[in-house]
Write a structure and sequence with these properties.
The complex is a heterodimer of chains A (114) and B (85).
Chain A: H1 3-20, E1 23-25, H2 29-46, H3 60-64, H4 75-81, E2 89-91, H5 105-113
Helix pairs in contact in A: 1-2
Chain B: E1 4-8, H1 13-24, E2 30-33, H2 39-51, E3 60-63, E4 66-69, H3 73-80
Parallel strand pairs in B: 1-2
Antiparallel strand pairs in B: 1-3, 3-4
The chains are: A mainly alpha (114), B alpha+beta (85).
Chain lengths: 114, 85
């Protein structure tokens, strides 16, 4: 399958999943297209459409938690940011994602522990 | 001038934007693409990130001894002592 066809397929596959989680594709089409293209390249190389902005390691269980859409594994963290880490998905109520900040996982965890 | 070092992923949009931020301001930086180095170097980078509280989320930027994880231009400005935003 060529790149454009696979990007289209991933959109088709992901949209109903993230919809049920309260998310939608990032409305900034240029960003969404870049991220999907990265995911297709990762899928072609490693077999899974991993998050393009999180690292794979030798820990397979940890790697499975960054296969897109990885929202269920990071639900509270992403809900706090109103976006996933890479920004492919944003909360349904977000019309302009430019102001959404990435909160590092350790800062989010510290905040939630206190 | 403060020393800037960053770890990035070649597939990451925010890593690309972070590099662009420093390039646009002509601020020199050292950069390593985590996904382009061998296993041993990846393990070293991950250990360094974990030691400073960062997990496997990129970009990871060190400005002297301060660490920023994520694309945070306002924080970059602050740490670099830049007034123009």
């Amino acid at each position: 399958m060529n790149l454009e066809a696979r990007k289209k397929a991933l959109r088709f596959l992901f949209a109903p999943i993230v919809d049920k989680l309260g998310y939608k594709f990032n409305p900034v089409e240029e960003d969404t297209d870049f991220l999907l293209e990265s995911e297709v390249s990762l899928e072609q190389k490693y077999g899974f459409p991993y998050c393009p902005c999180q690292a794979r390691t030798k820990d397979r269980a940890a790697n499975m938690k960054i296969v897109c859409p990885c929202i269920p594994f990071h639900r509270e963290h992403y809900d706090a940011m109103k976006r996933c880490w890479c920004g492919l998905f944003v909360h349904k109520d977000v019309s302009d994602p430019s102001g959404l900040k990435q909160i590092p996982p350790d800062k989010f965890n510290k905040k939630n522990r206190t | 001038m403060k020393k800037v070092k960053m770890y990035t992923l070649s597939t990451c949009l925010w890593c690309k934007r972070t590099k662009q931020y420093f390039e646009d301001r002509k601020i020199p930086f050292d950069c390593v693409d985590y996904d382009k180095v061998d296993d041993a170097e990846q393990e070293r980078i991950m250990a360094e990130m974990l030691e400073h509280g960062g997990g496997g989320s990129f970009p990871y930027i060190c400005i002297d001894k301060d660490v920023v994880q994520g694309y945070e231009p306002v924080e970059f400005d602050r740490l670099l002592g830049r007034k123009d935003k």
